[in-house]
Write a structure and sequence with these properties.
The complex is a heterodimer of chains A (239) and B (615).
Chain A (H helix, E strand, L loop, with lengths): L5 H9 L23 H10 L4 E5 L2 H10 L22 E5 L7 H10 L5 E5 L1 H5 L20 E3 L6 H16 L23 H7 L8 H6 L10 H11 L1
Parallel strand pairs in A: 1-2, 2-3, 3-4
Chain B lengths: L1 H7 L18 H10 L3 E6 L5 E5 L4 H10 L7 E8 L7 E9 L4 E9 L5 E3 L8 H12 L2 E3 L31 H10 L2 H4 L2 H7 L17 H4 L8 E5 L11 E7 L2 E8 L7 H5 L8 H5 L6 H16 L5 H29 L3 H22 L8 E2 L2 E2 L7 H23 L3 H7 L7 H6 L5 H5 L6 H4 L20 H25 L17 H6 L1 H12 L7 E8 L4 E8 L7 E5 L1 H6 L2 H5 L4 H10 L4 H5 L1
Parallel strand pairs in B: 2-5, 6-7
Antiparallel strand pairs in B: 1-2, 3-4, 4-5, 8-9, 9-10, 11-12, 13-14, 14-15
Helix pairs in contact in B: 11-12, 12-13, 12-19, 12-24, 13-14, 14-19
The chains are: A alpha/beta (239), B alpha+beta (615).
Chain lengths: 239, 615
């Protein structure tokens, strides 16, 4: 494909190939070509040159910086070109807690990124609100925008982020140009929450340790191990 | 209580009158009595012996004016303004925490405000730093400050409708449902994110900001071509690579010159202070990590020291030295990140890679000790989470032995670098008087030539026993702030070396099992330990009723922890006087009249971390 090893170049200089009438070199092979699927080659190019848009807000942002530093070196995945402009980015890494004051900013930046685009939610706060189940923190950024990969941890180690990014690469492998309908962005969805209100209530329900503070904050008690289905029933009871 | 405190806290406030228990004999209290008499409602002393003077709210300005201006008092640093809500309809309290550089004295002035009359005179004419502090109290408690030049919400969105979050009647999760909160957040438009005068400047006036105003009330130029003769409005952030987080600056430009700068903060407001009121004393420790995530252990240690001063307990000698080592390691950690990112902001990427290598080595030490790299939650009330693991001391010694080599490399890259010098020297200058008035602390204040370091002024953890210098700048510009921080890294190395040499043996935790958990082996072996274990886990630690405002020297400046306990298992009020919050307030002063490129240099040089600014 136009590339040759340095050794070959040296050899061909020593023994120049004969030139055909058309001006091409006579390599003895009829034509250099290969076949592949268009999807495969496009996905190969996309997943190995992702331009991340680092939306680092808090502690996770520092671990993200560590991941871009020399020890963990995300350049190995073709991701060293951080794009601070959303218009030239195709991967958003939301690293850290997102407050309701920041939510419109986050959504606007996501809307500004061109398709195809992916989103990594790094850390507990971005994924679920983490240890901050209070008046100011968004209970998971998936209420605001679609998320492809969640990286758990508080904060995740740089290896964790690298693994999450490799999962994004895996996900890109499965994409095809023939069904891009899910990438459509209808105008009425721009700047709107990603989930309907009842789903936001559902995912923002207290869980785990935070059930203890229900009593203090005056909400109905929930079970620490309530599964989503149970929660839906309870929600209906309350409504 | 006072007896126990005097024995327990070796860090009692310097100055006459405070070593004894009687606050009435404090020089400032007697002077206030002589001048104001009846206006002093109550005089008491807090857990570390700082006199607390409760005064008539209508005379707050006169009293603070007297305390600042009177030569014998000279309380020139307003360290903090905070409010306390005890709930149940009791009056709100507003604390003014003062420090006198000249006399080396602390004093707290308290005003009690009944709920139906939440109003105080502003003290912004006395201290510039009061501007943001009062805005914060207004934002979170709804207390109005008469005469304040710019009383807007600061942390919450300006059109926040749910109320005042830190009041006790405000539910932890807010008043609206989650879906409603999300909907309202995303529905905020342009008008809601700019102040009105900013819109006016940008010429957007005719469209939005004046929808209610009668047309003849507008200035003439606005009615014509909105952009003609108007300064340019430049929005920087909140998503910008060089604002060190989600800081947003609205700049008004005349060409390249900055006419004015309005910082908008609160994009990372996390509700730490509210959430901590719902957590037990030891459960607060993980939250402290996440405020200054660049130097987390300093927050851990400050919080633990504050609670211990309320309890009146003295930690073990080994614990003190371990905390000194960890404090200084984290000071280095914070300064290294500042160094790397500042150099990156000014175009020198190499330094970032060098300093992050060293940070990784400190992370390794964190990890060996606590298991976490960045959020170690290392202290417990009365001690540490565990003793140092075997081999850790050697690792720390190896680190401080080899760090100076990297520092020398960075020094060679930056200190005499022509670009570095021309970007930093004579940029963002602030003199000592202004710096104190703006409440600057830490390296920023010292770069302006004021040698105020809490480690020297009110030594804690036995800092008076260590030999170290406090570097002081001369010009108060960005370059001096760089030099001061750089030298502080070297001084921290010196302190760690001394601490490692003198690290005593013995237990790391105190022996009082009503405060710290007994060792697991004992908990299973003896019934007393088992009961103590059970009570601590099930009921939680109880801290006697009292209040304290305790401060240490963090990597960014003076970190104050204001705690109020009612004798229960959770704090009633948990205030963090975040040094970056105060330091950032000076940014408009530093950059007005400078060029756009200097904004980033000045912003980087004051070393902010948004986690603690917005809290």
């Amino acid at each position: 494909m136009g590339l040759s090893a340095p050794g070959e170049t040296a050899r061909s200089e020593r023994h120049p190939l004969p030139v055909l009438e058309s001006g091409r070199l006579d390599t003895g092979i009829p034509q250099n070509w290969l076949t592949t699927r268009l999807d495969y080659v496009i996905n190969w190019a996309r997943r190995n040159s992702l331009w991340p848009m680092p939306f680092g807000t808090a502690c996770c942002g520092i671990e993200m910086m560590a991941a871009f530093g020399s020890k963990y070196d995300l350049s190995r995945f073709g991701m060293e070109r951080m794009s601070f402009s959303p218009r030239q980015a195709d991967l958003m890494i939301v690293a850290g807690r997102v407050s309701y004051k920041l939510a419109p900013v986050l959504r606007k930046i996501w809307d500004q990124m061109p398709q195809p685009k992916w989103c990594v939610s790094m850390g507990a706060c971005a994924s679920s609100g983490g240890m901050f189940d209070n008046y100011t923190i968004v209970q998971g950024i998936d209420t605001i925008l679609p998320v492809d990969v969640y990286v758990p941890g508080c904060p995740p180690r740089p290896e964790g982020l690298a693994y999450g990014l490799m999962m994004i690469q895996e996900k890109i492998k499965g994409e095809t140009l023939s069904s891009m309908a899910f990438r459509a962005e209808p105008e009425e969805a721009v700047g709107r929450p990603n989930l309907p209100p009842e789903s936001i209530e559902l995912v923002a329900q207290p869980f785990g340790n935070s059930t203890a503070q229900n009593r203090a904050s005056g909400l109905a008690a929930t079970s620490a191990i309530a599964r989503p289905v149970d929660r839906r029933e309870r929600l209906l009871e309350h409504s | 209580m006072t007896q126990a405190t005097a024995k327990a806290s070796p860090r009692l406030i310097i100055g006459e009158g405070t070593s004894g228990a009687d606050p009435e004999s404090h020089a400032s209290v007697t002077a206030l009595r002589a001048s104001f008499g009846e206006a002093l409602k109550e005089v008491a002393s807090d857990a570390i012996g700082v006199p607390v003077v409760t005064v008539d709210p209508s005379l707050v300005f006169q009293i603070l004016h007297f305390l600042k201006m009177e030569a014998s008092q000279a309380y020139d640093l307003l360290a903090d303004i905070m409010a306390v809500d005890l709930g149940a309809g009791r009056p709100l309290r507003v604390w003014y925490q003062l420090w006198s550089m000249k006399n080396g004295r602390q004093l707290r002035v308290v005003a009690k405000l009944p709920l139906e009359r939440l109003e105080l005179p502003t003290v912004t004419p006395l201290w510039d730093t009061a501007n943001w502090l009062e805005r914060e109290v207004y934002d979170l408690f709804g207390i109005t400050f008469r005469g304040h030049p710019d009383l807007r919400r600061i942390l919450m969105p300006e059109n926040y409708e749910e109320g005042f979050p830190l009041r006790k009647d405000f539910p932890l999760r807010g008043r609206f449902s989650r879906s409603e909160q999300t909907r309202r957040a995303l529905a905020r438009g342009l008008v809601d994110t700019y102040a009105e005068e900013e819109l006016r400047m940008a010429g957007i006036v005719s469209e939005v900001a004046v929808r209610d105003a009668p047309p003849d009330s507008l200035p003439g130029e606005v009615r014509g071509d909105p952009l003609e003769g108007q300064p340019l409005l430049l929005n920087l952030g909140p998503q910008h690579p060089a604002t060190h987080g989600v800081l947003r600056l609205v700049l008004q430009l005349d060409g390249e010159r900055i006419l004015s700068c309005v910082p908008h903060i609160g994009y990372l407001h996390t509700g730490f202070e509210k959430t901590c009121e719902y957590r037990e004393w030891n459960q607060v420790v993980p939250y402290t990590d996440r405020m200054d995530y660049l130097a987390p252990m300093l927050y851990n240690i400050a919080y633990a020291l504050a609670v211990e001063s309320l309890l009146g307990i003295e930690i073990t000698p080994r614990c003190r030295v371990v905390r000194v080592i960890l404090s200084e390691l984290n000071r280095i950690l914070g300064h290294l990140l500042w160094l790397g990112t500042t150099a990156m902001d000014l175009g020198a990427l190499t330094v970032f890679l060098y300093t992050f290598q060293e940070r990784e080595r400190i992370y390794n030490l964190h990890e060996a000790y606590t298991g976490a790299r960045l959020t170690p939650s290392t202290t417990r009330v009365g001690g540490m989470l565990a003793d140092l693991p075997p081999g850790w001391i050697d690792g720390a010694r190896n680190f401080v032995e080899t760090l100076p080599k990297t520092l020398a490399e960075v020094d060679r890259l930056l200190t005499r670098n022509a670009i570095w010098i021309s970007r930093q020297q004579d940029v963002g200058i602030i003199g000592p008087d202004d710096a104190i008035s703006f409440g600057l602390t830490g390296p920023n204040l010292r770069a302006s030539g004021v040698a105020y370091d809490v480690r020297k002024a009110r030594p804690y953890l036995g800092y008076e026993e260590y030999e170290f210098d406090v570097p002081v700048g001369e010009h108060g510009d960005c370059y001096d702030r760089f030099l001061v921080r750089f030298e502080e890294i070297r001084q921290s190395v010196r302190i760690i070396e001394q601490a490692l040499d003198r690290l005593p043996g013995g237990p790391i935790n105190i022996d009082d099992h009503s405060v710290v958990l007994p060792p697991k082996s004992e908990a299973m072996g003896s019934i007393d330990s088992m009961i103590a274990h059970f009570k601590l886990v099930m009921e939680g630690l109880r801290v006697p009723a009292g209040e304290v405002w305790y401060s240490i020297e963090a990597s960014k400046g003076e970190l104050g922890i204001g705690l109020v306990s009612d004798g229960g298992t959770k704090p009633v009020r948990c205030r963090f006087r975040a040094p970056s919050f105060i330091n950032l307030g000076v940014l408009p002063f530093l950059i007005e009249g400078e060029l756009v490129a200097d904004v980033l240099a000045a912003n980087a040089s004051i070393d902010i971390v948004l986690g603690e600014i917005d809290r």
